[in-house]
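Our consortium's second objective concerns turning raw sequence data into structural hypotheses that experimental partners can test. To show how far this objective has progressed, the report includes one record in full. It was chosen at random from the queue rather than selected for favorable results. The single chain below, 242 residues long, was entered without modification.
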Amino acid sequence: MSAKLIAFTALLSITSALRSTITERRQVNTECWQTNPGTVFYNCANGYVGCFKEDPCALPPKPDTPELPTIYEITQPRSYNIYPKSPLAPEDELEDKVPHVDLKKEPGRGIVTTNAMVFDDVPAGAKNCQLMWRLDGKDGLGGFRLTGTHGLIYTRQLLGFPDENTPVTFSNLKPFLNTAEEFSPSINTSGWELTTGAHIGPALECAEQVAVEMIQDDSGAEDDRIFMVNTETNGFYLTYQL
């Protein structure tokens, strides 16, 4: 990871937070095709966990199957485009709240747009917080677009987030940066443009607000862009247990 990448901090957030219990047929991810083509990963309440070609969640329970913990979701986080070095939009003068994540790099300019995202109203006692992302395929490529060859996203959890009366800008986020923690290459969106399903992101510390900053890979000289719409069934979301 280059020094330039760390210098231009990026961040993530989104609109309103909703919680819902994931059903026992919850599909955790679709990476099973790599080792078991034609299969999907299932984590069923009846004890079946692994890659299967057909949904095993309706089968009779396995003997002595322990009860799985309930997993909750918060979708549609508040999300903000951040412009670390735009001469047309100085970071102290612009708050750009958006219903998506838009990470952009241009030839000769490097990182243009990063993202700051926050999940509000995480309940007290929440544990095992995890950043997730998924594609529902409802809007085709409209829900997710990857331009260029670098689909790698670096993330870092924030120590807090500006209050509602403070604009979310590059400068106003600086007090919440954990400079002791480096960005982690924790999300790779390459190759998933036409594939629906959910994917596991980094584990996060639970709090009343869980905020994350995001920045894309800044290597290479080509034009790269990662654009993902956040809805109840598409984009980034937070899972937790109680």
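The partners drew two points from this record. The chain has two domains: 3-21+70-241, 23-68. The radius of gyration is 19 Å. Both points have been shared with the crystallography group to help prioritize constructs.
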